[in-house]
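Recap from last week: sequence in, structure out.
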Amino acid sequence: MTVSGNTTFDLTRNEIIRLALLECNGTEPDEAVETRQQEDASKFLNMIVKRLSVKHPLFGVIDYTIPLYDRKQSYTIGAGGNRNVNRPVSVTDARRQDSSGNETPIWQMARKDYMDLPLKSSTGLVNQFCYDKQLNLGVLYVWPVSTATSTKLSDGSTDQWTNSGAVPGEYYYTGSDISAEPVYVFANEVELTQGTLGSLANGEYAWGDNDTIGNDTLYVKTAVGDPDAQADGYLKVLVNMPDRIIITANRTLDDFTTSADTPDFPQEALEMLVAVLAAKLSIQYSPQRVQLLKIEADTALIDYFSNDSEDVGFQIQPSFNGSRSQGAMYA
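Predicted structure tokens:
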């Protein structure tokens, strides 16, 4: 027996749509799919992807690390948030990581339990969290709050930043509040990403000397330009490693935007995507086959998601702190 040795089979957006239309008699094998059909089916396909996102597929699980500082009670997560990533569909668990890298699981609270806390500004080691999934930005509440303190590098009046002569648009720090590379950099409370000096993108920072200053310093590039022209505390850093919260989240699955896009799904889900889309389109193109195609779609969904789980046991640990939402921890 000869096998191909190839395991990279995939389908593009338009191939999924064509196969689904063939299933529901929306097109013929020797016909091209009409433009309007393609557009409508693409919208249905993206709606299906968004609906499947809330089923929390394993391949959509991701960890995000968020530094805890300035006694902040909450951190926004989403485009333009404190953690500038796509808004998670959900957060399933979290760990607190100390400055040495040691991690400790922390409890997840219901939103009501968090709101019922009498003093949300209590300081200490974070041991509880709550994720409030809002429309644009998710909000991660933590309790107690961290006392790690940031260092402001802009006050809205003093000239502490200079536009780089080597690469205009990259600004370097000329003040005296830091002498070593910080561990975190924030612009308007949004965490910046470390980039490459001399080719920074908006929202990035680097450490070095690209202007023959005579010493290394902090460079940043932001969409608003000069940090000195912004409000007090616009630019701040953490010079020492703080405690961090590492959340395990279910990310939002990517859209199909072009004809050549491939699914943000593993290969094992390809048949399921075709079957579900065919069932959806059959309402318009093949009413007499709706029930059959719905059964095929349901079977494909069950087959896929019944295997989309971790094959591990769990243990139940009782909670003695009186919170209604903290009855068990899964491992």
